[in-house]
Amino acid sequence: TQLHEFIKSLPKAELHLHIEGSLEPEQMFEMARRNGIALPYSTVDDIRTAYAFGNLQEFLDLYYAGMSVLQTRQDFYDLTYAYLQRIHADNCRHVEIFFDAQAHTERGIAFADVIEGILNALEQGEADFGITSHLILSFLRHLSEEDAFKTLEQAEPYYDRLLGVGLDSSEMGHPPSKFERVFAKSNALGLKLFAHAGEEGPPIYVYEALDILKVDRIDHGNRSLEDDALVNRLVSEGMTLTVCPLSNLKLCVVDDLKNHPLKTMLDLGLAVTVNSDDPSYFGGYINDNYIRIADALDLSKDDIVKLVKNGFDGAYMSDARKCEVM
Ligand code: ADE
Ligand code: ZN
């Protein structure tokens, strides 16, 4: 349709993307083959069939298992470069990427191999596709505060190449307050702060992300809608929420895209953006997310423009770069 073409034509920014969640089944087989790793699947179709999740944890179990094929610096490079190549086709011009360092270091992979593979691909992607990018070190919240501190220390040689730190993995039972001190330390180092909150967790987790962690963006934030005072605050602070429609559908945060709160959020004046989260696992990259949610909620051209603009406003880009792409 005309709206689909409009969406495809617009330059976009993506602010919520886990690079390990862009690992396509074909790539998983290729890396398993070259690294001599046995997979519990015999075909690409087997993998896609297995991607049926009842909640966040069911997804995370397959996500952490899948990424075990990532072994070498070249693997991290190839993973990242393939993602950039793919979003170039979606006219995505700027991306801020999370990586789950602990999910690799706990398997014995060197931190340097992970981050240098990713950073080298980001650099090459800017040269080849003109996509600007930032990298965010995301702490796994099911692991300890001490483990997060250790990971922040490992990142020391790269502080000037990191935009910030994030917080992801199993939300329930792991409130933001568990990471107060490591976020304070990250802040003191000049790093920006991001946290997943209100995906499955209650509104109080969003308050904690704001008040205790002092985050610069909220990832997801859907359940903020249960608390009017919280909504008013997020609106008045202009806090960016990185919403992920197809992720919410696949993880049963919503039962149907027609019941997704994105349009309500927009109409309330929340600074919502559209993102893909883990595109390989959730069945779509950034344009698919825009198109599917636009169709389900009957979004207008103005809604789409607002969402795209929110993406650039919520991004860490120079004004000059914004002028160049928008
Ligand atoms: N890790 C990767 N994707 C995630 C998500 N949507 N929520 C929490 N942790 C994640
Ligand atoms: Zn996420």
Model description:
The chain is α/β, with parallel strands linked by helices. It has helices at residues 2-9, 25-35, 44-50, 56-66, 73-88, 101-105, 111-129, 145-154, 180-188, 203-213, 228-237, 245-250, 262-268, 279-282, 286-297, 301-314, 319-325; strands spanning 12-18, 92-99, 132-140, 164-168, 192-197, 217-220, 240-243, 271-274. Helix 1 (2-9) packs antiparallel against helix 15 (286-297) and helix 5 (73-88) runs parallel beside helix 7. The relative contact order is 0.14. The model has no long low-confidence stretch (mean pLDDT 98). Zinc ion binds at residues 16, 18, 168, 196, 219, 277.
Determine Rg (CA atoms, Å): 18 Å
Largest sheet: 8 strands, parallel
**Average pLDDT for all residues:** 98
* CATH architecture descriptor: Alpha-Beta Barrel
Q: What name goes with the CATH superfamily?
A: Metal-dependent hydrolases
Count of domain modules? 1
CATH topology: TIM Barrel
Number of helices: 17
The bound ligands are: adenine, zinc ion
| CATH top-level class | Alpha Beta
User: Helices and strands, in N-to-C order?
Assistant: HEHHHHEHHEHEHEHEHEHHEHHHH
Measured by DSSP, the beta-strand proportion falls in 5-15%
Share of residues in helices: 40-55%
Low-pLDDT stretches? none
Class based on secondary structure composition and strand pairing: alpha/beta
Beta strands, count: 8
Q: List the strand order in the largest sheet.
A: 1-2-3-4-5-6-7-8
Question: In angstroms, what separates the terminal alpha carbons?
Answer: 23 Å
Anisotropy-based shape = globular
Site (Important for catalytic activity): 220
Function: Catalyzes the hydrolytic deamination of adenine to hypoxanthine. Plays an important role in the purine salvage pathway and in nitrogen catabolism.
Pfam family, one: A_deaminase
Organism: Algimonas arctica
